[in-house]
Amino acid sequence: MKFIDHTIIQVIAGNGGNGCVNFRREKYIPKGGPDGGDGGDGGNIWLESNNNLNTLIDLRFKKIFQAPHGENGSGRNCSGKKGDDIKIYVPIGTKIINYQTREIIGDLIKHKQKMLIAKGGWHGLGNTRFKSSINRTPRQRTLGTIGEKRDIQLELILIADVGTLGMPNAGKSTLVKNISGAKTKIANYPFTTLNPVLGSVSIQDKKFIIADIPGIIKDASQGSGLGIHFLKHLERCKILLHIVDLCPTDYSSPIENIKIVLNELKKYNTSLYKKPRWLVLNKIDLIKSSEIEKIISQIKNFLRIKEKFYLISSIKKTGIKKLCSDIVLYLKK
Question: Which of 78, 130, 240, 322 could form a disulfide with 74 if both were Cys (CB 3.0 to 4.6 A apart)?
């Protein structure tokens, strides 16, 4: 199924039914009193999160949701039928935004969490409601009110404890696949990961969710590669793993690659840039230990960053157990 993480829909709640003006007309009761009933309320529109969904693709094709109107009232004090509510199902992690005002209406982060996004109109009152000791034959009634109408932007932001980021072919997908069994695509060419993938990791009777997102390249913020909009799926993560290829096939500098990713991260979102981040130096099986020490020294001297360092080999699974154990300990805090 194609991964769609944003869409715009229009929601139109039902109008309230009108109240009725009517008087009793029965045999032997020549002057029957008022018996006009109320109208019915208009149908509401709800959003509900569901953990069986992982994309907004169904809402890419159906853009308008109209709830039924409430029926008008009738004689014999019969109220009109209420309009049925409409429920729209979305994946967990869906953020709801008012398209016109850009106001964040809500965020659905739990299974079966519901939110009212368009309220139906209020019912009109029948003439029975206006009967009094000085007004025995009221001819007043009220009309039902108009239901709410909104343009809603839906943004899916995946819920994960840990997120990975780095250049293409840094070994992010291999790491996620080896520790979680996630069905990520792995190949020896750039951008094998085209959409975010979630994996569940179990260790020491504990579990955490890890997210694999497409690689970031220079000028991704300008639209190069796959861009940087996938970085939004790291916003809910408690910690980021910056995967660095120590032996790039294009002979680029690991240090320069680190700078590129951090620069693009900072351009996207300052708060995401400041999120706890560990530096994971990958593919140590392809480089001499003396070279590794040299690179680490250069990172400390030139970048002056405080990230925690890990040396791993995703393909050989070297250092992965220690990394996962430390993640579990960190998430316990």
Answer: 78
Residue 208, marked binder:
no
191 labelled as ligand-binding?
yes
For the chain, what are the domain ranges?
6-156, 162-332
In 131-285, where do the E strands start and end? Answer: 149-156, 162-166, 197-203, 206-212, 239-245, 277-282
CB 105 within 8 A of CB 97: yes
Helix ranges restricted to H, the chain: 58-61, 172-180, 254-268, 270-273, 289-298, 320-332
- Note the pTM of the prediction, 2 decimals: 0.81
Instruction: Report whether 198 contacts 158 (CB < 8 A).
Output: yes
pLDDT digits (tens, 9 = 90+) for 120-135: 999 999 999 999 888 8
CATH class of 162-332: alpha beta
Tokens at 140, concatenated:
């007043």
Residue 245 marked in a binding site: no
6-156 matches 162-332 in fold:
no
- Note the Cα 303 to chain centre separation in Å: 34
166 is annotated as contributing to ligand binding: yes
Is residue 188 a contact partner of residue 40, using CB atoms and an 8 Å limit?
no
Residue 171, marked binder: yes
Q: Dump pLDDT digits (tens) for 206-234.
A: 889 999 888 888 877 776 656 678 888 99
314 is in an annotated binding site: yes
Q: 269 labelled as ligand-binding? A: no
Q: Does 306 belong to an annotated binding site? A: no
- Find out if CATH 1.10.468.10 is the number for domain 6-156: no
- 284 known member of a binding site: yes
Is 192 annotated as ligand-binding?
yes
Decide if 26 contacts 32 (C-beta within 8 A).
yes
